[in-house]
Structure formats: structure tokens, C-alpha cells
Amino acid sequence: MRTRRLGGAGSAEVSAIGLGCMGMSVAYGPADADEARRTLDRAAELGVTFLDTADAYGRGANEELLGGWLRDRGRRADVFLATKFGLRHDAASGRVGEVDTSPEYVPVACDASLRRLGVERIDLYYAHRRDPGTPIEDTVGAMADLVAAGKVAHLGLSEVSPATLRAAHAVHPISAVQLEYSLFTREVVEGEMLATCRELGISVVAYSPLGRGMLAGAPASWEQLTEADNRRRWPRFSSDNIERNLTLVREVHRIAADIGCTPAQAALGWLLAQGDDIVPIPGTKRVRYAEENAAAAELALTAAQAGRLRAAVPGAAVAGERYPEQALRRLGH
């Protein structure tokens, strides 16, 4: 597995392709803990060291899953472990409710994650979303205290504005900003945000790099989504939008065939070609997809191939927002 540096001064080395672990516990249909552990085992065998979770994934269940696997397999020294805080669940509905990035909540959330993960230190700790009512300087100041205490090694933010990123980095170095980035979602990163990251030496961790599976060709229709699959309620997968988006995907498939790789590998290879400071974290809960995704680290696209893939998915042609309305309101602060 090839590696990349995460962040500027004092940066960490991580696998060029990471593993998003959310779907092992929530969002994409029923969880299968045994298959999840097999997937983690295989990813580790393939050299995937960068594992991503959050306290919001299954209300801590995903952190507990990773913590149990780390303990049982003795893999802690082999893993660069990232988790997040800030999305609190409503007690009545069980759904994500308020965003809490208050300085008082930061150490409470971190200690809870450390217990669930069964580790003494988190390698990369993100604010999952930002409460605009809390100055980012206060949040990052409290996160910096965790670094000083030895509970966290590196700090990150997720889905913030360039201005927020600058203000945060002035308080304590930010190693990574996690953003949705794929052939389907480019406007979030490309432009001012990427320029800001490169000026400050901050890496972009690209989540949903396969467009939540659509760029890999799954699902093939809205009807294939079960009630337990969150995508059934997301705009790009609606019955009105999915066929328009799959038309774009079919062109990606044709280009991938010309390259000699799978569509998922083409999409990941395209992201890797955007710069050494981009680290995709495709999520999966199945061994075969972990193998397919990890192999993309060896794919070196030519400029012409990357250009064909970009042209195959014009930004204006993608139908539907990337999140439902309520979730959209939490982004970009």
C-alpha cells in the first residue's frame, strides 16, 4: 500500500486509501459485526492503516466495534485512528439533533470515545460539524488541551468554511479537513477551500469518494434500496434523480473499462490524481469491496484519463443535493 502524509509540520503517514467504517454499524442496511471484523482484518492485511469513525455512528456502536477489533487483534500499533465529536443525538427520536462544539463538551466527548475505542490516544480528532454559535477559537482551544494532555495527537475539522479553517489553524495546527469529495461532488473542495488547505499545509480527507456507492454502480435503482438504507431518503437517490445520475455513472463505467480497472477504482484513482494531499476514505463493510478499493492505490491515471473522468460528470448535470435539507443546514459554517 502506498502512503501519504497527512498535514504539514509534524505530519503523520497514512495509507493512501483509508477505510470509512460508518457503514459497518449504521446507514446502509443491517449491520453484520462478523463481516465487519473480517473486512477490517483484510484491510489491515492489505496495508490500510487509516481508519475513520465517529461517536455519532450508531451512537457509539461503531467506535465500540473498532475498539473490540483493535483489542482482539492486537492491531493498535498498526492503525492511524480517526474519530469525531459534535453531533449529539436527540433522546426521544434517536436521530442526530443539535451540534455541540462547546469547549465544555469537547473533553467529555473525547473521554467517552477513548473508553469506547479502548485506547489511550486518538490519532486524529475532528469536530464533526460546527455550531456557528460557538467561536471556533474556543472549540479548537479545548481540542488543543487534549493534545497537551496526550489524549489526541492531531486535530481536524469537517465540513467547515475556509474562513473557519483559517481561524482554527491560527489557534492550533489543523492536520486535516474532512470534506465530501468525488467526481459527483467537487464544488465543496475545488476552489477557495483547496487553495486554503494548500496554503496552510492541511490535507483533505475525502469522504464518500464513491458518491455513496453510486459511482461504483450500486444501487442500480431506487427500488433496490431497503427501508434500512439511509440513501432511500437522500435527494440524489430519489426516484426522480437516480436515473439521471446513473446515466453519468454509465459513462464512468465505459472509461474505467478503457483504463482496465473497475469504476470504483477509476473514481478513487481520479481523486488520488488531484494531489498528494488528498486522501480518500471509501467506506465499506464487505471484504470484496475493501480489496477492490485498496487496489486503487496502485492506479496511476494519466492526465488524459483523469480529464475524461472529470468531463464524464459535469457538475451541473448531477441531479439532487448531496444531503437532505436538515443535514445541509449543518454544513459550511
From TrEMBL:
<dbReference type="InterPro" id="IPR023210">
    <property type="entry name" value="NADP_OxRdtase_dom"/>
</dbReference>
<dbReference type="GO" id="GO:0016491">
    <property type="term" value="F:oxidoreductase activity"/>
</dbReference>
<keyword id="KW-0560">Oxidoreductase</keyword>
<dbReference type="InterPro" id="IPR050791">
    <property type="entry name" value="Aldo-Keto_reductase"/>
</dbReference>
<protein>
    <submittedName>
        <fullName>Aldo/keto reductase</fullName>
        <ecNumber>1.1.1.-</ecNumber>
    </submittedName>
</protein>
<dbReference type="InterPro" id="IPR036812">
    <property type="entry name" value="NAD(P)_OxRdtase_dom_sf"/>
</dbReference>
<feature type="domain" description="NADP-dependent oxidoreductase">
    <location>
        <begin position="16"/>
        <end position="312"/>
    </location>
</feature>
<dbReference type="Pfam" id="PF00248">
    <property type="entry name" value="Aldo_ket_red"/>
</dbReference>
